[in-house]
Amino acid sequence: METYLTIFWLTLRVGLFSTTLCLPFAILIGYALARHRVPLPSLIRAMISLPMVMPPVAVGLALLWFFGTKSPLAPLWQWLGVEMIFTPSAAVIAAAVVGFPLLARSAEQSFAAIDSSYEEMARTLGASPVATFFRVSLPLARRGLLYGSLLCFARALGEFGATAVIAGIIPERTETLSLGIWSRIQLGDDQGAGILVGLSFILALASMLVAERWLRPGPK
Fold first, then answer.
1. Residue 78 burial (C-beta neighbours within 10 Å; 0-12, 13-18, 19+)
2. Distance CA 166, CA 161 (A)
3. Topology of domain 2-215, per CATH?
4. Which one, out of 66, 184, 188, 200, has a CA that is 20 to 30 A from the CA of 217?
5. Spatial distance between the Cα atoms of 103 and 90, rounded to a whole number of angstroms
6. DSSP characters for 78-133?
7. Which residues contact 202 (CB under 8 A, 6 or more apart)?
8. What is the number of other CB atoms lying within 10 angstroms of the CB of residue 127?
9. Where are the domains of the chain?
10. Most distant CA atoms of the chain, gap in Å
11. pTM of the model
């Protein structure tokens, strides 16, 4: 049972870390697209959405090329002492890349839905652009950002293809729930796969219950 719990906690950490990694970039890009004139916005949105529509294995292969020893950036990774391939960090990066589009587009829609008159009023009262963002824009967009974070987290929990390519299926090191289920199915270990499916159900259900509590209207 200890092995299954190790897989469970690794999956939870990957989901939390990947969502945390995505959040500041998603907020920055979402706000820029919603509130500023950026060059080629349609192209930027298309590029953001690519990991969501491409085959996950293709995304993983691209990450492998980017962080691998044959990458043009390999000397930089060696100089920085960054070891990414087949590590838990690789699982976090893979989950972050495939989940980022969901969070970034949610952030853009959240900021776009805010009545700009609130921000203009804050500016006329002397608030700087930075203060207006943190005191007005960000609080008003918090529900949409929370929803996008939930989507990103949920996507991370079920990530398989990209993670398998860049992180591998290494027991007690990079084996998440989805990878563990797959490996046990391949080995004919139906009982083990069933236990991991049950843990996946518990984690997904808990995430949905938290989301229902925090996203529903009215008092919490």
1. exposed
2. 9
3. MetI-like fold (1.10.3720)
4. 200
5. 20
6. HHHT---TTSHHHHHHHHHHHHHHHHHHHHHHHHHTS-HHHHHHHHHTT--HHHHI
7. none
8. 16
9. 2-215
10. 67
11. 0.89
**Taking each helix axis from N to C terminus, what angle separates 190-215 and 142-157, rounded to the nearest 10 degrees?**
180
Whether the CB-CB separation of 162 and 60 falls below 8 Å is answered with: yes
The identity of residue 90, as a single letter, is A
